[in-house]
Amino acid sequence: MRDEWSEAFINALKNRDTERLRQIPKADLHNHFVLGGSRSFIRERKGLMIPALEGVLKSMQEMDQWNQEFIGKYFESSEGRRFLIEAAFVQAREDGVTVLEIGEDVWGLGQYFDHDVNALTEAFFSARDKYAPDLELRLLVGLSRHCPVQWLMEQLEPFWGRPEFCSIDLYGDEMAQPIENFVPIYRKAEEYHLIRKAHIGEWGTAEDIRAGVELLHLDEVQHGIAAVNSAEVMRYLAENRIRLNITPTSNRKLGRVDSYEEHPIKVLFREGIEVTINSDDVLMFDSDVSKEYQRLYDHGTLRKIFKIHIENFSAYAIITF
Predict the structure, then answer these.
(1) CA gap 243, 219 in Å, rounded
(2) Crossing angle for the helix pair 106-113 and 149-156, to the nearest 10 degrees
(3) How far apart are CA 152 and CA 45, in angstroms?
(4) Pick from 93, 173, 233, 252: most CB atoms within 10 A?
(5) Nearest 5°: phi and psi at 55?
(6) Interval 77-90 mean pLDDT
């Protein structure tokens, strides 16, 4: 089956056959569900047309402003949050995603689920069962860098030891506070055998990535594209098998790379670093996983090998130009 899917995937890319591309199983391991829903589903159910972002943003503040204008003000309720969860699973199904890693930020437990972690997990798994029952859901706990660490520790208490959660992720402004502040949280996450990941190296430096991996004992890095600026850091990531979950269009729309052709993923991959290709924020960036692969193919970014995650294993599709 692996060879069949790989060949079908290659042919779909060559023929720009979007419908076929979406039929092929794939993973999305870097997805913020609030911005990860199906545009058509939201329009049909809510009569709300959310436009994809045009142009390039200059800061995370501009991203937050876009989010508030087109998403936040419409869904600031428990019902709205549950609807966005449903929309994320509809989008995953439409794009042929069979492994999806998403989750709620710790502050959302109180704001949308009345501090009831059972209600939170039920919202995700019931939406999965309703809209994408064959999908493997990997639920994560989200943390904002902007929040005081002691407050985060308090909010995390209901999550520790819950078998539904497989990972923990730190995101937000990379410069909000020093990465070492979060060491106590990540030590506890390690005790509970959670996969440890964090957003590093989209705005920061290659050295920031290595420091984050070493201090937080990370298994994966969200973005991590700045590693391309240091041969030593790339070697470190490759030798320690630290995976980078990369989102090409997000990097482009946030002005972190100048073009798809020059996206660092091609160098990172050739240096032996495991990379995955993901959506990040579908509604904002028009970046479902199939489109991300097609864009990289069309721009000749990865000229020899795409690493595609099919079901629970990795397949290597040889791409010839």
Answers:
(1) 7
(2) 60
(3) 34
(4) 233
(5) 80, -165
(6) 98
Question: What single-letter DSSP state applies at residue 51?
Answer: P
Phi first, then psi: give them for residue 21, nearest 5 degrees: -60, -40
Structure tokens at 109: 């437990």
Closest CA to 71 of 215, 281, 271: 281
Whether the CB-CB separation of 287 and 256 falls below 8 Å is answered with no
Q: What's the whole-model pTM score? A: 0.94
**Amino acid residing at 291:** K
* Torsion angles phi and psi, residue 209, rounded to 5: -65, -50
CA–CA dist 187, 191 (Å, integer): 6
Query: How far is Cα 287 from Cα 256, in angstroms, rounded to an integer?
Result: 16
Higher pLDDT, 316 or 282: 282
Q: What is the mean pLDDT of residues 72-87?
A: 96
201 secondary structure, DSSP code: S
What is the residue type of 256?
R
End-to-end alpha-carbon separation of the chain, Å?
Answer: 24
- Beta strands 305-310; 313-318: pairing state: antiparallel
Q: Encode pLDDT of 177-199 as tens digits.
A: 999 999 999 999 999 999 999 99
b/e code 281-302 from CB counts within 10 Å (16+ = b): bbbbbbbbbbbbbbbbbeeebb
Q: Which residue has the tokens 């539904």?
A: 164
- pLDDT tier for residue 215 given thresholds of 50, 70 and 90: very high
